[in-house]
Amino acid sequence: MSTQDPGTAGRRRRFADEARAERPDLALLCLLLGAEEGPADPAAPADPYGVDAAQIELDRLAGLLPYGARSPRAWASALQELLGTRCGFAGGPADYQRLESSLLQRVLHRRRGLPILLSVVWTEVARRAGAPVYGVALPGHYVVGFGDPAEGVMADPFAGGVPLSGQDAALLVAGATGAPPEPLTPVPAAPQETVLRILNNVRAWAAARPERTDVALWALELSLLLPSHPARLRYERAELLVRRGEFLRGAAEMEEYAEIVDGVEPAAAEEIRRHAQAARALLN
């Protein structure tokens, strides 16, 4: 890992511990992720990264929901009225071009974001109010579900919380993937799965902006702290270190990854070792 200040190291430990908890706190994981980009308000020394303030805001929004048991459809309607209509949480094409659309602190402040972050707001507000709610990681889009998944009660926070039938969700997936629409039953997404998907979005944002290797690096390093992640991310991190001019560290990590790969794909391992040698040669 790269050299870290004590504050960053402490947040990383907290992130890793929470990701491995029996019941991870999705909001906290997203807020620790958002803190990587720097203080939300440097003038607020008591809470420079906005983690506590964001948790308070989620609690406040939950307190605005009508109290009492209700059906899944009634919960979906109540969330749409509060968050979509009254508070104006929604998204649009321009939000895909902004890093803050993936940072929960900033999404709560701007009330704009990517589908997955808006869905985190929906699920965390609803959960605090006692709703049977969960995230649904559709291919190419992320929505929320209420009640028994077999009932298929869903809403699209990116569109202000409009209700989705199973057919609506199938059409969303078809539009995102190009595949023919097929009936689907929503499957609740685990918090770690949701966080990895957010980090993938951050990495995609940074990949389109070569000057932001700093963002690509912290997104990779957080991904590697999750209990389940693609092994190839270690090699991607090594390549990124080389691009950032950290040739020796990048080469060393390539060689470590080659040892892992060697037992399964010897030819690939040898190619990785050649890349490591090339990285070391850049120092000459």
What's the multimeric state? single chain
Structural class by sheet pairing and helices = alpha+beta
The level of helicity is: 55-70%
Number of strands: 4
Shape: globular
Number of helices: 12
> pLDDT average, as an integer?
92
Order of helices and strands: HHHHHHEEEEHHHHHH
End-to-end C-alpha gap? 24 Å
> Uncertain segments of ≥5 residues (pLDDT<50)?
none
State Rg.
Answer: 21 Å
Biggest beta sheet summary: 4 strands, antiparallel
Q: What is the strand arrangement across the widest sheet?
A: 1-2-3-4
**Hey, roughly how much beta strand do the residues contain?**
5-15%
What are the key terms here?
7% strand, 284 residues, 4 strands, alpha+beta
In words, what does this structure look like?
This protein is α+β, with helices and mostly antiparallel strands and 284 residues long. It is built from 12 helices and 4 strands. The protein has a 4-stranded antiparallel β-sheet, sandwiched between helices. Helix 2 packs parallel to helix 8 (191-207), helix 8 runs antiparallel to helix 9 and helix 10 packs antiparallel against helix 11. The protein is globular, with a radius of gyration of 21 Å. The relative contact order is 0.10. The model has no long low-confidence stretch (mean pLDDT 92).
